[in-house]
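PROTEIN FOLDING TASK:
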Amino acid sequence: MENEMPAWHLEIPDSTNALHQREQFVQYLEACGATGDYAAAELIFGEIVGNAMIHAPGPIAVSVEWTNGSATLRVSDAGPPIDTSHVRKFPDPLGEHGRGLPIVNELSGSSLSAAVYVDGKTISAELPVRLSTPRTQSQRLQ
C-alpha cells in the first residue's frame, strides 16, 4: 500500500541489551501516529524480546511492518524452534513460567505465529495499534 508507514528495523547484536529498546519502539509507534493500546503493544514487544533473551542468547532482529494500517511485530533469533499452538491455553496459575506467550496471543487477537528456519526462528504478532490516517510521502518518517 503506497501510503503505509516505513517499516522499523532494529538489529541487536547482544540479546542482553534488547529490552532497553522498548522506549525506542514506543517512540516509533507514536511518530507513526498510530492509535490503539500502546501499553499492550509494549508488553507484546517485551514478552517476545524477553523470550529471545532467555532462550536464544545472541543477536536479535526486531521489525515492525505495516499492512493496510495494521502493524506486525517480528522478532528473529537463532534460538530453538517453538510451537505456538500450545500457547492458546494459559498454564498452571501457580506455575512460575509459561505465561508470556499466552498473554501475547490474547493481546494480539490470537495472531501469534512462528516461522522456523535452519538457523533460528521468527515470532510474529499483530500489534493492537492502527494507523489513524494514511500518511503521504512527505509525512513519512525520515
